[in-house]
Design brief:
Length: 582
């Protein structure tokens, strides 16, 4: 019946990832500073109160105090007051939020006092991905001074639940706005209702329940506008309803449950797809979406395939970037069904449907007109036109959510690879050793694909390298990914360490060798004159190198041919370096 309270105390230390990345331990000076943060959770509240006390014991210094929340690109989108989904309209406000791409969760960092100001650090970080940055203004910390700042972290199913509690916590007088979203006859569950002021600036967002109802608190006397969206994000995987998301660091009970859900499903999150978007109207007016058409595709052979639903003559619906996710690569929808069968909810209209299975199969194409509330069945026939005997199709460089920049889940990466005809997947996530192999069986992919445990070792100043095969070391950080940021290595020493991690064998692959993250550029060998300007950044102890990366080839191939002329014989590889649904 009382509040739960946790108190954390400790000294500050320079961030090793930063100092190790620039290979300069002194770039972040060590300061004598002592922190105490108290976390308080009241019964029934979705808001975790956080109060931090900073005891400064060093020379006077101006700092910015705040929080950085790093969220996963594969499941979340930033959503902020004012601009909603459109972070180009600003990343500041009294609260800063994140919403699940398929509903189900909302996060927010909520200020106790004034809005967070513009921040260069915040702008840089939010360009990377779904990161919430709540950093205050400049504060001068004097020697032996004590400074306190407080804020709240909210977690709920939708943002309106968080802002409702936040208004109450701050003592703001509010009134309720509410309504029901239908498709003209039936309630629409899982629709998003974006709540705006008279200038159409986002205040919060609610999600409709099973009866299509929604409500939210707004400051008393507000002139409110609303818009309902039920488009979805256009990406479909053909997984059972309620399939979960698997991460490499799930505790065993959670991982077992998540893996099982990929085959049998689980609790379903309400998420409206294919219903389109309403106009922005006064909060008192009804919100009516359009029932989707259902496009049913069955390739018939039980093998994964790619289904692309393209607009016949351009997207007829304009997009409000504050409230509506973009189309997937300009298409109406993309689907990657494991068994070649899927039902796709689609906004009514005229489309070209393309079904394919990578470069060795002939694509199948048809034009369709899809009608609201009606089902259209397609039975594509795919023909394998290039048969590669005793040759495996593989992609030794691709990413998923274990990478900080991965925009797709682990299971989704396997499905996309298999649907494109690949037979060998490599789990080359940045500085994480993630084992994808247990996912093959629940995804019914064991007859089509295998997976190799790997790691993309990603030192900023010495180039990125893939190493494989590996095994995860479960009791080590990042499951045994080489901690390159903890040592001052030359590149030959780094390569020796990578080889040792593979018990003296394995493959070291130079990734995108020419460019800001390439070893050849880091070593200064771009001019093909046989000279490494930065000698300790060069090592010939690699086995393979990329000559094709995401369609780019010329600069990589030039270096490869030059190496051949000098007696080195690395194996050339072509890769996607995919981070999303490629």
């Amino acid at each position: 019946g009382g509040a739960a309270v946790i108190r954390m105390t400790g000294h500050a230390a320079p961030m090793e990832l930063l100092t190790g990345s620039v290979e300069d331990p002194g770039i972040v000076p060590t300061r004598e500073v002592f922190f105490t943060t108290q976390y308080t959770l009241e019964p029934g509240s979705p808001l975790l109160r956080m109060e931090t006390t900073v005891e400064w014991l060093d020379e006077p210094t101006t700092v910015q105090l705040g929080d950085v929340l790093v969220c996963s690109m594969d499941v979340s989108d930033p959503y902020h007051p004012g601009g909603g989904l459109d972070t180009d309209q600003g990343t500041t406000g009294d609260w800063l939020g994140m919403v699940g791409q398929q509903n189900g969760i909302a996060l927010a960092l909520l200020s106790d006092t004034e809005a967070w100001p513009e921040s260069l650090v915040g702008d840089l970080l939010t360009e990377i991905g779904p990161i919430i940055v709540g950093i205050g203004g400049n504060t001068l910390l004097e020697e032996e001074s004590i400074t306190t700042f407080s804020r709240s972290l909210g977690v709920a199913e939708d943002l309106s639940t968080l802002t409702d509690s936040w208004y109450q916590q701050r003592g703001v007088e509010t009134e309720t706005v509410s309504g029901t979203v239908t498709d003209g006859s039936d309630a629409v569950a899982g629709a998003r209702v974006h709540i705006m002021d008279a200038e159409q600036q986002i205040l919060t967002m609610a999600i409709t329940n099973i009866d299509g109802d929604w409500s939210a608190e707004v400051p008393e006397g507000s002139d409110i506008r609303v818009q309902a969206t039920g488009r979805g994000n256009g990406q479909h995987m053909g997984l059972p309803p309620g399939a979960g998301w698997v991460g490499p660091y799930n505790i065993p009970s959670v991982r077992t449950l998540a893996e099982s859900s990929l085959a049998v499903g689980g609790p379903v999150t309400l998420f409206a797809e294919g219903y389109g978007v309403t106009e922005i109207v006064d909060a008192s007016e009804p919100l009516q979406l359009t029932a989707p058409a259902i496009l049913s595709v069955d390739v018939g052979d039980g093998i994964p395939a790619v289904v692309r639903v393209d607009f016949a003559s351009g997207d007829p619906v304009g997009r409000n970037s504050m409230t509506t996710p973009g189309r997937p690569d300009g298409s109406m929808a993309r689907a990657y069904p494991a068994a070649g069968r899927i039902d796709i909810p689609v906004e009514p209209g005229d489309y070209e449907v393309v079904v394919h299975r990578g470069v060795t199969w002939e694509p199948w194409t048809v034009d369709v007109s899809l009608v609201s509330g009606q089902r259209t069945d397609l039975v594509p026939v795919l023909e394998e036109v290039v048969v590669l005997d005793e040759v495996l199709r593989m992609d030794p460089h691709a990413h998923a959510a274990p990478s900080g920049d991965g925009k797709i889940g682990m299971a989704q990466r396997l499905l996309v690879h298999a649907a494109n005809g690949l037979q060998v997947h490599f789990g080359t996530d940045h500085d994480h050793v993630a084992d994808y192999r247990p996912l093959l069986s629940p995804l019914d992919l064991t007859g089509h694909m295998t997976s190799i445990v790997a790691d993309e070792v990603s030192p900023f100043l010495r180039g990125h390298h893939n190493i494989y095969p590996l095994e995860a070391i479960l009791d080590e950080p990042n499951h045994g990914a080489p901690p390159w940021q903890q040592h001052e290595w030359s590149t030959p020493e780094l390569h020796a360490e990578l080889r040792e991690r593979m018990d003296g064998g394995g493959i070291i692959q130079v990734n995108h060798g020419v460019g800001s993250s390439g070893m050849f550029t880091a070593a200064g060998v771009d001019d093909l004159d046989g000279v490494a300007e930065a000698g300790d950044h060069w090592s010939p102890a690699f086995d393979a190198m990329e000559v094709l990366n995401d369609g780019q080839w010329r600069e990589f191939t030039d270096v490869y041919l030059d190496l051949l002329s000098r007696g080195l014989q690395p194996t050339p590889v072509g890769v996607s370096d995919a981070h999303g649904f490629q």
